[in-house]
Amino acid sequence: MANLLMIEDDAQFASLLTDYLARYNLHVTNFQDPYLGLSSGVEKYDLLILDLTLPGIDGLEVCREVVAKYDIPIIISSARSDLSDKVIGLQIGADDYLPKPYDPQEMVARITSLLRRYKKIQGTATDNHPERIQLNETQESISVDGEVLDLTPAEYAVMQLLIKHIGSTVSKEQILYGSDVFEYGSDSSLSVILSRLRKKLGDEIQIKTVRGVGYKLLAPQ
């Protein structure tokens, strides 16, 4: 069973979603007060579902604090429709953004996908047989078979996100809004960057285009 933390001040919505997720072996602990949620022991949960309109503090500030202190995947669940909220949320570290209202089945799918990706990342970090492609965030470098790639800041930003979700599809929106190298989500240069990256990675490590969805990094061990 996965244990989820939810910070949501709409008690009725929280109750309905909690009951629905329980059908899928997803246990939710909800806090209407964001300060209580932050002091509840965030590190003991597997994932955070975060509303943005909260009493006393904006949800984006909560997101910043959680990202700064904890290593936990975050799904923003919000009725706020301003595009800037989505952009900022993904830029500051949220993993996904689901605007209300939504079918709870979609939330289940996103939770399941995110937990799967997160476990893959955690497993790779402790694997005695590491992937051929390695990300060093401290040095802001990426290497293939031990050789550091010569990347521009934009190429590094795209690769960083793809590596963190290796084997899973990353949407174009996640790339555009999750990095500050693309101003206001403009994708005018993304295709050029992907083309350059494919040449630098060679034939065995592929960036696959998933039509209508996004991109997936495939790297054999």
Largest sheet: 5 strands, parallel
Mean pLDDT: 85
- Distance from N terminus to C terminus (CA atoms, Å) equals 30 Å
H/E element string? EHEHEHEHEHEEEHEHHEE
What does this structure look like?
With 221 residues, this protein is α/β, with parallel strands linked by helices. It has 2 domains: 2-118, 3-Layer(aba) Sandwich (Rossmann fold); 127-218, Winged helix-like DNA-binding domain superfamily/Winged helix DNA-binding domain (Arc Repressor Mutant, subunit A, Orthogonal Bundle). The protein has 8 helices and 11 strands. It has helices at residues 11-22, 34-38, 59-69, 83-91, 104-125, 153-164, 172-177, 190-201, and strands at 2-7, 26-31, 47-50, 74-78, 96-99, 133-136, 141-144, 147-148, 169-171, 206-210, 214-218. The two termini are 30 Å apart.
Task: Give the key terms.
8 helices, 3-stranded antiparallel sheet, Rossmann fold, Arc Repressor Mutant, subunit A, elongated, single chain, about 220 residues, alpha/beta, 5-stranded parallel sheet
How is the topology of this model organized?
Blueprint: E1 2-7, H1 11-22, E2 26-31, H2 34-38, E3 47-50, H3 59-69, E4 74-78, H4 83-91, E5 96-99, H5 104-125, E6 133-136, E7 141-144, E8 147-148, H6 153-164, E9 169-171, H7 172-177, H8 190-201, E10 206-210, E11 214-218
Parallel strand pairs: 1-2, 1-3, 3-4, 4-5
Antiparallel strand pairs: 6-7, 7-8, 9-11, 10-11
